[in-house]
Amino acid sequence: MVGAMSIARLIDGDSERVAQRQFAALPYVRTATGLRVLLITSRETRRWVIPKGWPIRGLRPHEVAHREAEEEAGVRGSVAPDAIGTYSYRKRLHFFSGVTCTVDVYPMLVEKQKLDWKERGQRQLAWLEPHEAADCVDEVELAELLRHFNPR
User: Model pTM greater than 0.90?
Assistant: First the structure.
């Protein structure tokens, strides 16, 4: 997790010094009509994103991705231990400050979607074809990952 000292440094204007690392799940399912990926809305800006979060002590990156997918989207499943790529975005910390985050993306074959989960009332969810999802996200690198996503 980002500690108080890191946040203080970022707020004090050193946000460009070091990019922060996050880990994301790219939840997907195969249906009779094809591959679908899950997008969720961010809580503050309501942009379409994938579940992601900060490192958690004691958890490996793909385990963090799984945990975030469950908390943010209510999905559980198998997460690959190797990232399929990365993308960067600018995270707003408050009105005057932000930080550049680099996000490692781990594919997650969804086996279960809960009816109720931690952030259910705070986000919208959409199961889309990868090319449709690519058109919904703002981050160019994430859009490219989505357009080329083809799990084995």
Answer: no
Where exactly are the structural domains of the chain?
Answer: 4-147
pLDDT one-digit tens code per residue, 63-75? 999 999 999 999 9
Tell whether domain 4-147 is in CATH 3.30.240.20. Answer: no
d(CA 36, CA 70): 17
φ/ψ of residue 100, rounded to 5 = -80, 130
CA-CA distance, 121 to 90, in Å (whole number)? Answer: 25
Residue 52's nearest CA partner among 31, 94, 83, 30 is: 83
- Coil, helix or strand at residue 114: coil
* Residue 130, token pair as written in the block: 């990868």
